[in-house]
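User: Could you go from structure to sequence for me? I need the amino acid at each position, not a summary. Structure tokens:
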């Protein structure tokens, strides 16, 4: 029931059977809904109370940032390749970014660092629980959008071939699923579906985000090895 803390439906049911009559009491005894709070409506449903459809904190900037990330990912996938100069006299910033080895390494390692930061932020929000969860969620969304901008600086909308193409598609899949999870979380209180259906939509998008993430470290490692050793 609570993805953040690992509390199951059975544990919440046991707490209610032992006397918990409010969401606050269930939180106190089980730890459910103490991180992001999105499972609160489900707990209310088990308690037999009218479901509360409260918005998560900072839902508007999270929705805006997630929409921006989705738009950037779609643009990267569909936009034509950014052209480079046809002769040496016309060389400009684009040629430095996408043809100069030093600039390519700089943008590549920046991209790698931002990807690692995004992963650590996800762990920090759930495992370390330092600071405000809503604030870290917003930072995570912002880092995701910044990563996609850096991806443009590294590739110029080039999807590449073979291994590089698989890496790009995997990266964009992670971005799309993450943006969907951010939107589902930010707009969950406005969905016409029941709280349970809304929670399922959010959980599905989050699961797809994690599933798409698994191959990424291997593909990045293979990409780095291919650049330096082949």
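Assistant: Here is the amino acid at each position, in order:
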């Amino acid at each position: 029931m609570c993805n953040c803390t690992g509390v199951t439906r059975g544990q919440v049911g046991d707490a209610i059977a032992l006397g918990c009559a409010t969401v606050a009491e269930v939180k106190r005894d089980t730890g459910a809904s103490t991180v992001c709070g999105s499972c609160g409506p489900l707990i209310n449903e088990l308690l037999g109370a009218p479901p509360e459809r409260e918005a998560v904190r900072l839902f508007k900037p999270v929705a805006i940032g997630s929409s921006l990330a989705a738009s950037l990912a779609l643009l990267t996938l569909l936009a034509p390749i950014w052209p480079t100069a046809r002769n040496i006299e016309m060389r400009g910033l684009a040629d430095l970014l996408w043809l100069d080895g030093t600039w390519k390494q700089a943008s590549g390692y920046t991209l790698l660092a931002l990807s690692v930061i995004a992963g650590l932020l996800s762990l920090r929000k759930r495992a370390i629980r330092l600071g405000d969860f809503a604030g870290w969620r917003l930072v995570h969304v912002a880092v995701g959008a910044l990563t996609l901008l850096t991806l443009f600086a590294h590739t110029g909308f080039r999807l590449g071939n073979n291994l590089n193409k698989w890496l790009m598609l995997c990266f964009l899949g992670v971005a799309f699923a993450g943006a969907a999870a951010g939107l589902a979380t930010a707009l969950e209180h406005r969905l016409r579906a029941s709280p349970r259906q809304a929670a399922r939509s959010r959980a599905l998008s989050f699961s797809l985000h994690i599933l798409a993430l698994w191959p990424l470290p291997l593909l990045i490692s293979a990409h780095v090895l291919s650049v330096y050793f082949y």
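One structural detail worth keeping in mind: The longest helix spans residues 101-128.
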